[in-house]
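In this section we walk through a basic example: taking a raw amino acid sequence and producing a predicted 3D structure, encoded as discrete structure tokens. The instruction is simple. Fold the sequence below.
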Amino acid sequence: MRNQKKLIKYHSIAVEEKILNYVEKAFHILDECNIKYSDRIVSITINNRLRSSWGLCRKKNINNEKVFVIELNQYLLEGSDNAVMNTLLHELLHTCYNSFNHGKTWLRYAVKINAKYGYNIKRTENCEANEVEPQKLFKYFVKCKKCGNLIGKTRLCKVITNPEQYRCAKCKGSLMVVGKTDTKIDIKNYHKRRLE
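The resulting token sequence is shown next.
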């Protein structure tokens, strides 16, 4: 039998027990900054399948009513408290009026919280900033031969199968496929070995 998530009601929101303190703190911050978030948030939970994002805010249609569901990446909890708060606040700001994208309203709210509380809410974040090992998130890696930039991928894609056709976004250096231990591997033979 799979582990059941223990959900606790926080106001009218179902919140996973592990993150209850973060949720309480985040709502307190939004209230202190006079940022009006939606009263239609139905749950805030941990998603163990998220790999390409730290969190997400979804609009769902339940009983002909639009509601918000927020999910956080399970590996985010292994990072710092600030990383969890940055991501949670980021997703909560998407529930504010006219803020479902990363437009001017969302950015104004993020800047306001950052200035008042010293957080670093941004549109995107990487593993190093959230203090999480990228090996836990990604299955495949390519590394720049020039600057050493490590790029993780969750799926087998063209940059993994044909790294010679791509360049590093930082320095335009050539790329090579590496394993999780940062050793060079031959991706074509790598898959044959995994299937045997």
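Looking at the output, two observations stand out. Residues 138-195 form one domain. The two ends are 30 Å apart (CA to CA). In the next section we compare this with other chains.
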